[in-house]
Each structure stands twice: as structure tokens, then as C-alpha cells.
Amino acid sequence: MRLSNFFLPVLKETPSEAEIISHQLMMRSGMISQSSSGIYSWLPLGLKVLKKIENIVRDEQNKAGVNEILMPTIQPADLWKESGRYDDYGKEMLRIQDRQEREMLYGPTNEEQVTDIFRRSIKSYKDLPTLLYHIQWKFRDELRPRFGVMRGREFLMKDAYSFDLDHDECKKSYYKFFISYLKTFRRMGLKAIPMAAETGPIGGDLSHEFVIISETGESDIYFDKRILSEDSKIEDVAYDNDLEQVVQQYNNYYTASDEKFDQTEFDNNVAKDQQTKSKGIEVGHIFSFGTKYSEAMKANVLTSEGKQAYVHMGSYGIGISRLVGAIIESSHDTKGIIWPNVVSPFDIGLINLKSSDEKINNICNDIYSNLLNENVDVLYDDKKDNPGVKFSKMDLIGLPLQMIIGNKTIETNEVEIKYRKSGEVKYIKVENLPNFVQEIKKSSAI
Ligand code: 5CA
């Protein structure tokens, strides 16, 4: 993509309403544009990151054997009346009437909708477990929407649902999601700590939230710091292993957010020098709630003994749009964002320092088209701005690697390579660039 053709409305000033760094940087780098309180448009740069995160989440759900579906954003109130949650949900739910004056709502979550799909289609224990997920916009009329996409009113969530014959089978599904979440967050370069949690309006008896450490997080978290080194091999865990054992390794460490925290328990379980208190951002939350919805909504299957049994269910959420902010919170410096390669909106930023010079233009154009031929997603700054503007813009938007070409580098027939994260700079001969590109592709340096 040529920058001259790319809609990137960067701001010079930090918007005063943006209190935390991720919100400031998302606004400054033109990733989002506010529509109303807690509701945002996603502009090209932001949308590319959102899609990358979405695709990692999707890939990990598919690998765990979960089926992707797409449920509507607008749901009939009748389903929520059946479960009893229509009144419970209160003002956080956006209620709508259609032209026939039927009560509808904009979904804040989908337990009812998915249970309806399940009960219409699955009648036998032979079809269990059934695992479904979708990635869809949600609306919650939060009392205090804030911090940009971190606590929005409209936000993108991956929500998955499991249906099993009994409590033990349901636990197996729960463990599967538990492991898939650790794999997912790790792929994004995040260390997410699983913490036993309250179940709130979703209900149930078993729940974990996945929290990443961040000074700007909304919850206080307390944990045994040894849990941070636990997930080093999580990508190698296969789903046909004994997952309970793996989950147990995590559960052995004391972790709690403020609502569950108990100082005496903390002191009894964790040596003083391992005790850590911090702030955290909840990026995922999983629940196991037995037959709460299946009984209320009559979702039952025939067992092997020919009896009817209510299915045991769980639900599993990941805040995809929140993750965009959460990743920035954990990866930035004074100049701007530092994207982990896997979610970066482009692989490389190519900077032409003198686009009025024909020779430099020709070299840059060649490099640009060669990179595109190699399937490298490159943002080519071909604009006429001065070098300072170009450098600070490229640093702000945080692409992992920059290629810089100007008078000085051309004298020696070289390209300057700058790594955004380390600040390391090196020079490569133009004719060696194809080799260099092959190398960095192989080493996943981009
Ligand atoms: N039905 C369950 C699991 S599918 C559920 O809704 N869980 S939840 O309420 O915990 O939400 C799941 C995830 O969505 C949270 O962990 C969080 O990362 C994200 N999330 C929740 N509310 C917001 C919000 N207002 N803005 C941005 N992300 C949110």
C-alpha cells in the first residue's frame, strides 16, 4: 500500500479525552474514530490489526475443533424471557421494538440464541459434544464506557459455547477452551494469567478470567509470580492429552482478582518473595454453568439409556476489540506503538526520504514491487513530507521493521534497516535485499 493512497488520519495532538496510552495512541495513529460514547469506527490501520487478532483467535478455535457459525446481532426478547434473563440484564441491554412492536434486543452475549439453535437441531447424546463459536459485535450499555476500545459499548467478541451430556464431559470441554485460550494469547505475545473468577450475570459454578498485567488495567490482581513461566510449552500441548493435568498445573498457583482476594490465603500459599500485586486487563472469560440455560429453555437429548437429559453447557469469551488496546498497553514506547509481528498492520514500512528524486523513486518502486511479489505486506511512504515527519509517523504506527532510502544510503547503494522494537540499525546492499527478505521471512522477524 502506498501511503499517498492510504487513509491514515494521524493526529498531531493527543486528544484530551484519552486517559490511557492505548487510547491515545489509537487516536493519534488514526486507527479509530469515535462515533459516540463507547462506539467507534475502525479506520484502515485499526481494522487491519483487528482482523489479524480475529484471525488468530479463529485459527486457535478451529484447531481446538470448535465450529464457526455467525449469529445475528439482533435477537428476539422471547428467548431471553424463556431463560429469565430479560429482566435480570437491566439497563445494560439495548432494547428495541420492530415495526410490529415486537420486542427485540441488540445482543450483549448469545447463550439464549445458541441454545435455541442447539435444541432445534441436536436430539441425541451421539451428537455430543457440540462446540460452536462466532465472532460478532456485541452491545452493552456500560455505565462508564471508557479507555477507548477497552471498555466500549459496542465491541467485538469471540464467544463460544459447549454442549455436553454430563458434568464430567462438560469439564473436558472447559479444559479444552482453557488451553486454547493460553495458546491464543501466547501467539499474540501476551502473558495471560488464568484466575478463578466470579460468574456474574452469566451464572454457573466454575469460571476463570484471563488477565494480562498492565498498569492501566481495571482490576487489582494478586498472584504467585511463578505462574508467569508456566506457559512456556503451551503451544506443544495436543488436545488429545490429559488436559485436566495441564490445567491443574496452572491452578496450583494462587491467583485472584480483587473480588476473590484473601490476604491470609495468599500468605499461606505463596512465599513473600513470590507474591505479586498488580493491575490487570481481562481479555478472556470462561464459564461452566451446567444446566442453567438448558433447563430453562428445554434443551435436552436422548441418553444411551433412552432417557431425556438436559445438556451441560459452558460459554467462553474473548474480547477481540479490547485486545487491540491491551496489546498496545503492553507494547509501546515514548515514540508510539510497537506491534508484535503477528498482529502488525503491515510487515514493513518502506520510507522514501526524497520522493522528488527520480533515481531514488525508481529504486524505491523496484523494492516496493519486489516486496509485494514476495507477499510481504508493505506500507510505502512515497509522500513528499520531510524526513522528520516520516520517521515519527512510522515510529508512531509501530511496524516491526523499516527500510529507509535516501541520498546518503544511495551513495553507497545501500538500504537502511531499522528494527522498531530494539532500535537496531543496519545497512544492506540493494542487490542483497532479496536474500535479506527471504531470511527475515523464514526467521519470522516480520
Ligand atoms: N457469554 C460470556 C462468555 S462468551 C461473556 O459474555 N463473557 S464476558 O462478559 O466476560 O465477556 C467476554 C469478554 O469480552 C471479556 O473477557 C472482555 O475481554 C470482553 N468485554 C466484555 N465487556 C466489554 C466491553 N464493554 N468492551 C470491550 N470488551 C469487553
What does the model show?
The chain is an alpha+beta fold. It folds into two domains: 3-336, BirA Bifunctional Protein, domain 2 (2-Layer Sandwich), CATH 3.30.930.10; 346-442, 3-Layer(aba) Sandwich (Rossmann fold). Helix content is 33%, strand content 28%. The chain has 14 helices and 23 strands. The protein has helices at 21-28, 44-63, 77-83, 85-88, 111-121, 167-187, 243-251, 263-269, 292-296, 320-330, 358-373, 387-397, 407-411, 433-442, and strands at residues 32-36, 39-42, 67-68, 74-76, 94-97, 103-106, 130-139, 154-164, 192-196, 206-213, 219-224, 255-257, 275-290, 300-302, 308-310, 312-319, 332-333, 336-337, 348-352, 378-381, 401-405, 414-419, 425-429. The strands form six sheets. Strands 3, 7, 8, 9, 10, 11, 12, 13 and 16 form a nine-stranded mixed sheet that branches. Strands 20-19-21-22-23 form a five-stranded mixed sheet, sandwiched between helices. A three-stranded antiparallel sheet has the order 4-6-5. Strand 19 (348-352), helix 11 and strand 20 (378-381) form a beta-alpha-beta unit. Helix 1 (21-28) crosses helix 10. The chain is globular, with a radius of gyration of 25 Å. It starts with 20 loop residues before the first helix and ends with a helix. The mean pLDDT is 95. 5'-O-(N-(L-cysteinyl)-sulfamoyl)adenosine (5CA) binds at residues 109, 111, 140, 142, 151-152, 155, 157, 159, 202, 282-285, 287, 315-317, 319, 321-322.
